[in-house]
Write the structure tokens for this entry.
Amino acid sequence: MNMSALEITAEPHVGEVVMQATDLTVEVSTERGWVTIVDSVDLTVNRNEVVGLVGESGSGKTLTSLSVMGLLPKNARISRGSVDLMGQRISDMEERKLADVRGAKAAMIFQEPRRCLNPAFTVGDQVAESLRRHRGWSRKRAMQHTIELFKLVEIPQAEHRVKQYPHEFSGGMCQRVMLAMAIACDPMLLIADEPTTALDVTVQRQVLELIRRLQAELGLGVLLITHDLGVVAEMCDRVSVMYAGQVVEEAPADELFHNPQNPYTSALLQSMLEPSRRGEPLGFIPGLVPAPHEFPATCRFQDRCRHAVEETCRQTIPLTSVAPGHLSRCARAAELDLPGVRA
Amino acid sequence: MVSSMTRFIGKRLLLAVPTIILVTLLVFVLMELSPTDPAAVLAGDNPTPERLAEIRELHGFDRPFLTRYLEWGWNALQGDFGVSPVTHQSVLADLMYRLPITASLVVLALFFSLVMGVVLGTVAALNKGGVVDWLMNSIANLLMAIPPFVAAVLLVLFLAILSPVFPATGYADLSTGIGPWLQFTTLPALSLAIIPGALLTRQVRGALVDALEEDYVRTARAKGLQRRLIVGKHAAKNAAVPVVTVLGLVITQMFGGAVVVERIFAIPGLGSVSVESVLNGDLITLQGLVLLVAVLVTVVNLCVDASYGYFNPRLRTR
Amino acid sequence: MSLADSTNLSATPPKRRRRLNNRVLRRLMRNKAAVASMVVIFLLVVVAVFGDLLAPHDPNKVTLSLRLMGPSGDHLLGTDELGRDVLSRLIVATRVDLLASAQAVGIALSVGVPLGIVAGYLGGFTDAVLSRVIDALMTLPPLILAVVVVAILGPGLRNAMFAIAILIVPSFYRIVRASTQGARNELYIESARASGCGTWRILWRHILPAVAPPLLVQASFSASVVIVAEASLSFLGLGARVPQATWGLMLNDASSNLTTSAYLIYPPTVMVAITILAFSLLGDGLRDALGRQTTDGK
């Protein structure tokens, strides 16, 4: 449990596929009928790897992550494609079986940790619950292990803290509790949906380091959903960028930052570099994300893209390989020299 | 940790004392303003002026108002509620004999209404927006329009006369066994339980729908918990607070409803005694009854307040 | 509501109120249950007003030879134990009940609203004393309070109505007090004061309109409470007296003949239930239609 674990970031990603989404398409029921929000997303997370899923709010990244957990709200459905967890098809699994997988093979933490914990029960009880559910342990045994988990996520005075209620914890501590709950049953996949967005900057860093450490120690595959490219730079091995329900670029993190092959990614990077613009991630790019029912069949970014050209962009653009392990959805990817982050 | 809760309860208790005093004072003032002469009631038909004066002096009606109130209050504090001029019995003894009868009736009614509210409300919440939800809501609305005495008459008609499952009137004390007691108490308790049951159905539905939309429910799902636990444990304990809040109101209403229902079923409880006192002009018994009911309601509300601490740990500390 | 709409609203206050009312009315009209309730209440009022013309028989005419006759062509709902026509009594009872309810709500409004305004506007000691008294009233279960008041005033429909008015005063008082407190602090009151309006003028012109919507909702709910309380007291023999016809008395008559003539209980039961349902659904509808304004007041 030493801090040197943090330095293994550059470890080559070997290992089996933990999660694979193929052609994942999610629709949501609205007044206009079923509207496609997530469109043919391919996403892979390997063991011992942190994959970033980046996009603005409304890009479909959260629905993507929820469908990986089988947690889609009642008004949403997977209309096409599949999700496999550890080789097991979960996208067409019935709820009862799915519940056996959730928390055991894949776990998830969310944006506002304080609201994610039940105010009416002790934090220890809520973590132990997972162990009792999936391992069938007794209350006592589960609670003992919970204390160990609390120590693992660096909550001081673990024996005492397990008996306390969420309102007695700070936001950062609540996220540690959520992490303890997530890793309780040794899952292979951890999905973190904006895990630090609601936290203070200093606490953000601590929580990210903890996630990185747990990932390395437990060999987890992590899917990190964020709109903050700073977090991506710090954490991720590979990145998928989503825009208007589609993956527009996918690349190893270094490659993406230094050599973006999609105008949208490049614009995102520029907005991150503009110090005054930090915090309003995409104020830099003029225009708005199109509403889901108005997603065009052509390039969805063209109205906001400064490189858009009538004929070339006004057609369906496939996600194509521009370099080994580097995919981009841009008709002009080859001819453009897009600015990235200088090393 | 416990002390803050105790302090909270203590504060409520202190606030309740002046309220109870005020209630009795109000009733005393109203009785003073009453056009009916209490002496005339006691004297019977065509009393002589001498006889009236005699009664006035005997019962102290001629003394100043405040003196009488303070004396009554002082005696009541010591457990002496006076003697009924009609039955010539100790008012407190009479009320204490009747209290458990009404209390047991209310407890049974509360049980019925809770079962109804929790079952119908949960079914509605889990089918939010669906046909079942609509149906449950309609049932609740309809039942809200059936006051206890109407319910009582209908229940007697259907379950005592048309199909004689229960006796139409009468009472068997709990001491005679739970079977006979249930036989006589089921219909009155059901009559009392209908409107509160409908109220609780709405309340449970609303509270559960709100709780099920909370983030911690998503966490519980992400943990892989079964639906049974998510609804029955995680959502239920949070949904309980707004439900418990109306329980105080519901119990108070049931004590009110007991006035009519006990009359219909000839149950010798507090409700019956209130009507009898009015018809007999027995203001002393009525005065004692007001005090007793005010204290009862206060105690019930205190219990409700105290239960918040269990459902909402945030109240326990700080 | 569109953006253009809202700018228009703030620009012209008089127009705003009318638009507001239109919007509330439109929302109310879209609520099927509320519309049905209004139709029912309208019909009840028609029956109450034209009762004498509608009643097929003299409601108080005793014909012992016709006692406890089931429904027939001549007596559509049958006759009661004194041979009186049930339908006619039901029609006349509608008038008595509605009038009595209107009285009770009226009395309660005329007591609760001024007290609430005074307490909310003045605050301080006055507020503390008034609020304590109201709390004390609310400590007792409604029906027990009513019974006690009847005991003091003596039985009879008029006294029962006074008793019931006392029951519902607290709800009006609380709403008005809260709304007044809220409105008092709002800017438009400040400006009214600056332009030299007298206190009563301020109250009348500014607070009353703010209080009216939640009050309307509560009045509708209260009407159903009154119906129940009146019927309960009459049923107990503490309200209306024979030979007056009210739903509560008719139920009482019916319940004493339950074994032989069960048909007697349905007409008053249905009337009581329909009336309560109509007023409470109308209350729900009004609350939903008024939406934000109502919750603001609380």
Remarks:
- Residues 15-77 of chain B form one domain.
- Chain B has two domains: 15-77, 97-315.
